[in-house]
Amino acid sequence: MADYFSRAKTVPGQRVYLGEGPVPVTSIQSVNLVSIALLEIRVICLFSCLSKYNRIPINLLIFNLATADILFALFIRPKLIVSLYVKHPDGPSGTVLCKLLAGGIFAWVSEVSSVCTLLAIAIERYYTVMYPHGDRWKLTKRKVKIIITASWLFSLVFISPMFLGMKVTNGICVDTWTGLEWIPKVMTSAVNVVVFGPLLVMVALYSRVVHTLWFKSNDGNQISNQQKGVIRVRKRVTLMLAVVSGIFSICWGTI
């Protein structure tokens, strides 16, 4: 996504190719992104279906994460196909096609919401494991609804400059912000902060959680069978979410 804002300008109608081959670079990226997104969805659905605790609030966040990734996978390919091979008509219909489909607005909104959801899940795991008896940070359905709503609203606001800057020029959907030198730099920096900032936070939180569950909990203290069962559940859920976060990091690293 950062490359979208900082890439070099191209002549209208020109197609970018990898070397001298006939396959566009963006098409290769599309295959990679969609494949990884679908893999992540399968991992989420697999662990969610196997879980016996499928009505807890954390699974609502997982459901929102899966929804966001499904929307990303659905909208990123039409965006690339339309922008590469379809000439946009003039007038309002071309503007609508450019802003809503060729610009990839829905795909990027979904992925920013996915970042917010992953961060919320990491924070929930941290406080659940580190402060198991605390009620202040306990996740409830009401809090989940607020988190999900806030993630989508933030995503819409964050991506809105891209939406406003897209227009049709010579039958091609282009970003009008590229005419201003500082806009792509600001947007690239903002994307890096929104994406890689939360990833660093997630690494730090999951590191503490893994140390507590796999090492600190086995330091020789006697625990009951019930406590062992709780720890096993937390280990399974934490492992699944850490894997999903890792797949997400790989996905963004290929953009």
TrEMBL record:
Gene3D superfamilies: Rhodopsin 7-helix transmembrane proteins. The keyword Phosphoprotein does not apply. Keywords: G-protein coupled receptor, Membrane, Receptor, Transducer, Transmembrane, Transmembrane helix. Residues 31-255 form the G-protein coupled receptors family 1 profile domain. One of its GO terms (cellular component) is membrane. Pfam families: 7tm_1 (PF00001). It is found in: Membrane. It comes from the Eukaryota. Its main location: membrane. The chain crosses the membrane at residues 58-80, 100-123, 144-166, 186-206, 237-254. GO terms for molecular function: G protein-coupled receptor activity. Belongs to the G-protein coupled receptor 1 family. This is Pyroglutamylated RF-amide peptide receptor. It comes from Acropora cervicornis (Staghorn coral).
